[in-house]
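Entry: 30S ribosomal protein S1
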Amino acid sequence: MAQNASMEEFEALLNESLEMDTPDEGTVVKGKVIAVEAGQAIIDVGYKMEGRVDLKEFANPGETPDISVGDEVEVYLRAAENARGEAVISREMARREEAWDRLEKAYADDARVEGAIFGRVKGGFTVDLGGAVAFLPGSQVDVRPVRDAGPLMGLKQPFQILKMDRRRGNIVVSRRAILEESRAEQRAEVIANLEEGQAVDGVVKNITEYGAFVDLGGVDGLLHVTDMAWRRVNHPSEILAIGETVKVQVIKINRETHRISLGMKQLQEDPWDLVGAKYPLSSVHTGRVTNITDYGAFVELEPGVEGLVHVSEMSWTKKNVHPGKIVSTSQEVEVMVLEIDPAKRRVSLGLKQTMRNPWEVFAETHPSGTEVEGEVKNITEFGLFIGLDGDIDGMVHLSDLSWDERGEDAIQSYRKGDVVQAVVQETDVEKERISLSIKALGGDKFADAVGGVKRGSIITVEVTAIEDGGIEVEYEGMKSFIRRSDLSRDRAEQRPERFSVGDKVDVRVTNVDSKSRRLGLSIKAREIAEEKEAVEQYGSSDSGASLGDILGAALNKNDE
């Protein structure tokens, strides 16, 4: 009766499982990240299904994946089960489906869409529209040909969809259409408000060999190379950069053709006569940040004299960050003069040089062997990065995590935010690297225990466990295992049960493996060695003496 009831319960559960409403393949479902390992995120999509997604699918082009255990994400269910019994899912395809729905609506409404140029292809560029990839023809980048599209790469900006075909997965967009639309509205108003001799601010939009085009707020003017400075300028890029804000004077306006000629030198005196004397190399001065670009910040030392603090000279520790994250416009900063080029009217400045190199400070205060404590900042496939004093990181390589575990296994026990202790192994100031070791905290127990032990040594061990395949023994705290076949040279005596826990046994060391941190031990090898030694000293196979006689003589000699 009980058996029938169990069968009915099992059948009910089976039917319930079969009736569970599972999602259709080819649809977008919600899931939860339950683990991140080996470059993949394991996602539970419900319905007793789990799948794996490469971490790179969670990042926009050129960005680092931002995904953690517990995050809820939408994924595309390609198949409910693969050969391994896992769901086949894709985050990239889910983003693409979501993006296509949004873009089709924008296309129907003739609305602008936001995207970022992230790559070059034949005839144009690729644009990320938030999950869907579009093609931007070279002719649609700007109102005039763009020779260097570098400053446009990665920037969020509006685009107009010219054509899209979801079945073929094709989208064509235009940046030029957006610019022309806004320029047409602004051009007439801007030109009407301009007068010859007027000083205005503009943004360098394009640079050619003969000059630069400056955007005056909807209309472009030509800043000829001969009107950029009082000195001879070989190429406009020597003193200008795309995206830089400059003050110019309107020299001439042709209202019929909408052509505007601009000048810079007309607004300035020559301030460079005394620069070399006032700002010697390695001197420190206070300046004001006047402009911030992707490659650095311009600092005004005095009216008319600006120097560039390159992004590489801004901070000892903050790498690959936008200068705007370190300084802000109008901020007063202390800078050091690194280089002055009077011919090119350039001053190179350094911000980080006004502060001590934190790696030098660390090397002085934390020599090799010093114990430190810090928080786990990052976990990579090759080790841990630990936050240290001075806003710098040290690295613990996989091989320096544990004496007893493989690095790949030992690293699993660490999490971001854990506070750990380690020993400084080496500080390379030039390469800005600090090598740490966690396993060195307690010293090398194996090396200490077997320091005087060599292959062929006879040592005494204590039996700690009896097993079918042999016996476990201990020497100076180090565990080893003697196989059944090594328990005696006599097969009849190769019985683990003849030993007891706590027995002291003399064994011969057959191997010292520092890598696996194990001793190879053998009672059999010790007996064979003793027999060989006895034969050599007390008899031979040619003497006519039996082995028992020889060993007996050796034992009697030892007793004497």
